[in-house]
């Protein structure tokens, strides 16, 4: 159910941009895009021009040519240092358009703003009656460098063609990170040439649990899938062309039942064959701690980093039961040799070994923080249980990404009631709750602000088998996440007003976006 329109000045419908630019001034007139329009592309702006040209061809049915006297100008100017790596300036008048940035990435962000300025119906097909951009002057810079979304393809595999669409929608909202959750107990999707059984065996499970963790019902249907190296290389290139970085996640030392099913020698009980897990929840099986296990996963990480040029590599690290280590003579002996207080501390030790390997490759390791435990100091911390854990990590010197499950876990239902499709049990998460995500440090600790890279939404897919279900749960909540990660100013009525206009864009792109009543709205009459 939609909210009543808030008592807030309504901007021009063609300027209802999400996220809101830092500074926007309407200007008179419109700039028509027709067969006479030409692009003037300065050196360094070619990638942005290619992306813009594709969007404009969709909108107009025309492929706009480049010309030295073109009225639609894309210019790279490194002297615009105040715009940083992702900021841009855009001016549209009746006589032309000028997009400027200090870096190619900034131009890509500006292209997405131009895309939103197009008539909504022109986002998916040529608009009848001609296309024009509204007059406007924009200067825009994001508040945070990490504006991400995780998609879990381990629990339910999604074809790479859908991942392309997912990336394109992230780019539309100026999100710049797709974290791809490639491995888990229920499936291994990452191709590793050295270890083909990871996908041949680990990529398939016999059936899937129906209902939440602890259920005894199963669907009886096999589920499987894995990406090829060509699939992932193509995805990385597609995302890069839109200014989105794909961050791979290879989870260790827990959430590894699919790897253990493929290679039992990696476990604490190699004599016990395991299947790929068919249940949800936390599996008790974890990796063994022998040198052969470390070497195995160093190879896995090498092949992962070869495919993904992202500066960050996510190592997982959450929900690691230690019972197997505590009962394993080999694990106990390893803890003693390493000078650890006991086998429980093998968790941090194992992550440290993997983090060291990532660092030696010139990359930055990322790990989940689920409690106040100390993670290897080299890790960027992604805090999901409570913001207090993020601030504790920041005080210890970690960079942090906020991923609070109470604000940005989109596998929770969008609202209460029996009409919602299956979702993660626990609570519902409405649009206002996402919007109220707070990225500013606690009072009295302003120095921690420099440790905040940004925020990331998560969509775990235990209950989400299809792309339609993914988009139902993701939107419009991702719009609120994008707003808060890009723009530091909190103005809920203004955001809701702009969403009234932005919904037309989502409709044109086939994205579900009906907005459930938020907790602060009056009940309908």
UniProtKB/TrEMBL annotation:
Keyword Hydrolase: yes
Family: Belongs to the glycosyl hydrolase 20 family.
Catalytic activity: Hydrolysis of terminal non-reducing N-acetyl-D-hexosamine residues in N-acetyl-beta-D-hexosaminides
Region of interest (Disordered), ranges: 1-32
Cited PANTHER family: BETA-HEXOSAMINIDASE, BETA-N-ACETYLHEXOSAMINIDASE
Domain Beta-hexosaminidase bacterial type N-terminal: start-end pairs: 16-140
Designated name of the protein: beta-N-acetylhexosaminidase
Name of one Pfam family that matches: Glyco_hydro_20b
Organism field: Streptomyces roseolus
EC number: 3.2.1.52
Enzyme class: hydrolase
Gene3D superfamilies: Chitobiase/beta-hexosaminidase domain 2-like (3.30.379.10), Glycosidases (3.20.20.80)
Domain Glycoside hydrolase family 20 catalytic: 144-488
């Amino acid at each position: 159910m939609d909210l009543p329109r808030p008592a807030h000045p309504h901007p021009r419908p063609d300027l209802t941009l999400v996220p809101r630019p830092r500074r926007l001034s309407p200007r008179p007139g419109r700039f028509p895009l027709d067969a006479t329009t030409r692009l003037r592309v300065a050196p360094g702006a070619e990638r942005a021009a290619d992306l813009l040209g594709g969007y404009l061809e969709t909108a107009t049915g025309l492929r706009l040519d480049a010309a030295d006297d073109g009225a639609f100008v894309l210019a790279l100017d490194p002297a615009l240092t105040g715009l940083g790596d992702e900021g841009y300036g855009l001016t549209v008048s009746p006589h032309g358009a000028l997009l400027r940035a200090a870096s190619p990435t900034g131009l890509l962000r500006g292209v997405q703003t131009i895309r939103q300025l197009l008539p909504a119906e022109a986002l998916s097909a040529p608009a009848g009656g001609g296309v024009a951009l509204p007059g406007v002057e924009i200067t825009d810079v994001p508040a945070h460098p990490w504006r991400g979304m995780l998609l879990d393809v381990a629990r339910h595999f999604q074809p790479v063609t859908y991942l392309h669409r997912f990336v394109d929608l992230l780019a539309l909202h100026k999100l710049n990170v797709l974290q791809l959750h490639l491995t888990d107990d229920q499936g291994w999707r990452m191709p590793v040439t050295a270890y083909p059984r990871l996908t041949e065996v680990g990529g398939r499970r016999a059936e899937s649990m129906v209902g939440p963790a602890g259920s005894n019902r199963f669907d009886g249907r096999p589920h499987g899938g894995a990406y090829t190296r060509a699939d992932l290389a193509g995805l990385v290139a597609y995302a890069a062309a839109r200014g989105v970085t794909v961050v791979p996640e290879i989870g260790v030392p827990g959430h590894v039942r699919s790897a253990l099913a493929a290679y039992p020698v990696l476990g604490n009980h190699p004599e016990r064959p395991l299947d790929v897990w068919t249940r949800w929840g936390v599996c008790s099986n974890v990796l063994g701690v022998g040198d052969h296990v470390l070497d195995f996963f160093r190879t896995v990480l090498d092949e992962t980093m070869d495919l993904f040029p992202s500066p960050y590599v996510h190592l997982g690290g959450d929900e690691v039961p230690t019972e197997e280590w505590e009962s394993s003579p080999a694990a106990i002996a390893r803890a003693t040799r390493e000078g650890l207080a006991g086998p429980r501390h093998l968790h941090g030790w194992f992550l440290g070994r993997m983090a060291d390997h990532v660092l030696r490759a010139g990359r930055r390791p990322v790990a989940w923080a689920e409690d106040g435990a100390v993670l290897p100091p080299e890790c960027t911390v992604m805090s999901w249980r409570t913001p207090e854990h993020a601030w504790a990590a920041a005080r210890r010197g970690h960079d942090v990404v906020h991923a609070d499950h109470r604000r940005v876990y989109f596998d929770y239902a969008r609202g209460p009631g029996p009409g919602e499709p299956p979702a993660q049990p626990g609570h519902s998460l409405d649009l206002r709750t996402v919007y109220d995500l707070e990225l500013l440090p606690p009072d009295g600790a302003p120095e921690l602000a420099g440790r905040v890279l940004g925020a990331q939404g998560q969509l775990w897919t235990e209950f989400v088998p299809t792309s339609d279900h993914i988009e139902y749960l993701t939107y419009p909540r991702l719009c609120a996440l994008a707003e808060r990660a890009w723009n530091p100013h909190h103005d809920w009525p203004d955001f809701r007003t702009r969403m009234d206009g932005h919904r037309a864009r989502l409709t044109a792109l086939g994205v579900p976006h009906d907005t459930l009543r938020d907790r602060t709205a009056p009940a309908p009459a």
